[in-house]
Design a protein that fits this description.
Elements lengths: L9 H24 L3 H22 L6 E2 L6 E2 L3 E4 L4 E6 L7 H12 L2 H6 L3 E5 L14 E6 L7 E2 L12 E7 L8 H10 L1 E10 L2 E2 L5 E7 L5 E6 L1 H9 L2 E6 H4 L2 H6 L6 E6 L8
Parallel strand pairs: 5-6, 5-8, 6-7, 8-9, 10-12
Antiparallel strand pairs: 1-2, 3-4, 9-14, 11-12, 13-14
Helix pairs in contact: 1-2
This protein binds zinc ion (ZN).
C-alpha cells in the first residue's frame, strides 16, 4: 500500500475538478431520466460542495485528509450522492476511491498484515478497481478477474470461475454479487476457490435492518444493481460453509484515523473458509 503523502497540484488538480464536475453532471442526467428529482437536488448540493472545495483549495488551506491508496492530501474529499442520499467528504480527488475502498485498503494493510506476512499469499481481485492492486502486498500472487473483456488479467463468469478448488488465500469481491442474477452459484464458487483457512472480503451496500430486496432488473438509480442485500445474506453465506464476521469500522479504526482518511461509519463482511470444512 502506498503510504507516502502526495499532493495533487496544478493542471492535475484542475483536471480532477473538471472530471468530478462531469461525473456530477452525468449522474444528475441519469437521475433526471429516471425521474428522481431528489437525485437532481443532491447533484446541485454536490456542485455547491465542489465549489467550496475549489475555493478552499485556491485559498491554500492546509491538507487535513490523506488518501491511504494514492497519497492525495487536501482539506476534504469530494462528495458522493445517490438519488436519495448525499454524503460529503467521500471521493478521493486523486484516485477516485470512495471511503469504502479506503477502509478496505487500511484493513488489509493493518489488520491482515500478519496474515500476509505469514507466507506469500494468492489473491483474487474480483471486479478490480484501478487502484485495488495497491491494497495488497507487492509480493502477493495477484490475479484480477472480471466478466468484461480487457479489464482484468482473467476474463470469466464468477458463476463458473475458471480456477481449481482452493486456488486462493484471499479474495476481494466488491460490488459484484449485486449485479449477478444467480448469486447463489457465484457464492458457491467463492467458497470453492478459496483455500481452507482463507479469507474473503465482501462488500456491498446493505440494508442491515431488513431482508434482501430483489429488483428484478438492473436499477438505474441504484448503480444498475439488481438487488439490495439484507441481513439474510449472512445466513446464506453461512449455509454455504463460510464463517462470517461483520467488520464495523468503529472497531477497526479510531476516530482520528477515520477522520483523517475520510471513512464514514460502515460495515463489510469477512468470510473465512474454515480450516476443516463442515460444508454441506
Ligand atoms: Zn486516493
Amino acid at each position: 500500500m502506498v503510504t507516502a503523502t502526495r499532493a495533487v497540484r496544478g493542471p492535475q488538480k484542475a483536471w480532477d475538478w473538471l472530471a468530478r464536475a462531469g461525473s456530477i453532471a452525468r449522474t444528475m442526467g441519469s437521475y433526471a431520466l429516471a425521474r428522481r428529482p431528489e437525485g437532481v437536488t443532491n447533484g446541485l448540493r454536490a456542485f455547491r460542495s465542489l465549489g467550496r472545495e475549489i475555493s478552499s483549495s485556491l485559498r491554500g488551506g492546509a491538507g487535513e485528509r490523506v488518501c491511504p491508496i494514492c497519497g492525495w492530501t487536501g482539506p476534504r474529499f469530494a462528495p458522493a450522492y445517490y438519488f436519495d442520499r448525499y454524503h460529503d467528504d467521500i471521493r478521493c480527488y486523486g484516485c477516485g476511491s470512495t471511503d469504502r475502498c479506503r477502509l478496505l485498503a487500511l484493513y488489509v494493510g493493518r489488520d491482515l498484515a500478519c496474515f500476509f506476512a505469514a507466507r506469500r499469499r494468492r489473491v483474487l481481485d474480483i471486479g478490480p478497481m484501478r487502484y485495488s492492486r495497491a491494497f495488497f502486498p507487492a509480493d502477493a500472487d495477484y490475479v484480477s478477474f472480471d466478466l468484461r473483456p480487457g479489464v482484468a488479467m482473467v476474463q470469466g463468469d464468477l458463476r463458473a470461475a475458471p480456477f481449481p478448488d482452493g486456488s486462493f488465500d484471499v479474495w476481494l469481491c466488491f460490488h459484484v454479487l449485486d449485479l449477478i442474477p444467480d448469486d447463489g452459484a457465484a457464492m458457491r464458487e467463492l467458497f470453492r476457490i478459496l483455500a481452507p483457512g482463507g479469507i474473503g472480503l465482501l462488500d456491498h451496500a446493505m440494508n442491515w435492518d431488513g431482508p434482501t430486496e430483489e429488483y428484478g432488473a438492473p436499477r438505474r438509480d441504484d448503480n444498475n444493481h439488481i438487488r439490495r442485500y439484507g441481513r439474510d445474506l449472512l445466513d446464506r453465506l453461512a449455509a454455504i460453509g463460510f464463517d462470517v464476521d461483520v467488520v464495523d469500522v468503529e472497531t477497526v479504526l479510531d476516530a482520528p484515523t477515520r477522520e483523517r482518511h475520510g471513512v464514514q461509519p460502515r460495515r463489510f463482511l469477512l468470510c473465512r473458509r474454515p480450516e476443516a470444512d463442515a460444508a454441506p
